[in-house]
Amino acid sequence: MIGIIDSGMGGLSTLATLIHAKADHQFLYYADVLHAPYGNKGQWDIYKAIKTCIHTLCGYGVDQIVIACNTASFAALSACQEEFSIPIYGVLPSVDEAKEAGGTTLLLATAYTTSQPFPREIVPIALPSLATLVDLYYPYQMDPILSYLERELSGYNGIENVVLGCTHYELIGEEIRSILRAKRTFYGSNSILRQLKKATPGTGWQLDILSSGSIDHERYSDVLSLLLDRQSNLR
Ligand code: DGL
Question: Is the beta carbon of 188 within 6 A of some atom in ligand 1?
Answer without folding.
Answer: no
